[in-house]
Here is the input.
Amino acid sequence: MSDPDRTLIESTRTHRERLLAALVHGSLTARRKVTTNVPRLLGSFIIAAVLGLGCVGAGFVIGYLEQQRDEKAVTAFQQALSSNPLEPGDGLVEDEETGLLYDTERDEYIDPETGFVVDPDTMLARDPQGRLVDTRTKWYYDPASGNYTDPATGVTIDPRTLTVVEEE
Here is the structure.
C-alpha cells in the first residue's frame, strides 16, 4: 500500500469513528465537560466557614478564660479582705484598734506575717522593692489610682466597684 492510500484510509476511519460517536453520544459540545469554578467557589466557602468558626471559637475560649481569671481575682480579693490572721507574740502587744502588733521598743506597728513596718492609719507597708502592700490583703496598693494588684496573677482591681481594671 502506498502512503497516500494509507492516509486516506486512516482519515476515513477517524471520520467514521467521529460520526459514530456523534450519533451515539450527541454533538461534540454536549460531550465536552464545561470547566466551571463552582467546586472551587464551594470549597472556598467551606474553608472560610471553618476558619470563621475557628476564630469565633478561639475568641469565645479566650474570653471565657479571661472572665474566669477576673472572677477568681475578685473572689481572692474579697477573701483576703475578710481574713486577717494576726496574732501577738514574742513581746509584741496586739493593738486593739488596728489588730497589728505594736513594738514598744521601736515604737512601730508590725505585720506579723511579713515583718513589714506598717502605717496604722492606712494599714499600708513598704516591701523591699518599695511597693506599697496592704497588710490585710497582701495585695499591692497604688496610691495614685487607689487600685489593688494581686501579686500572684497581676490582675488589678478597683476596690470601690470590685471590677477588674484593664491594663493599657
Observations:
- Residues 11 and 17 are 10 Å apart (CA to CA).
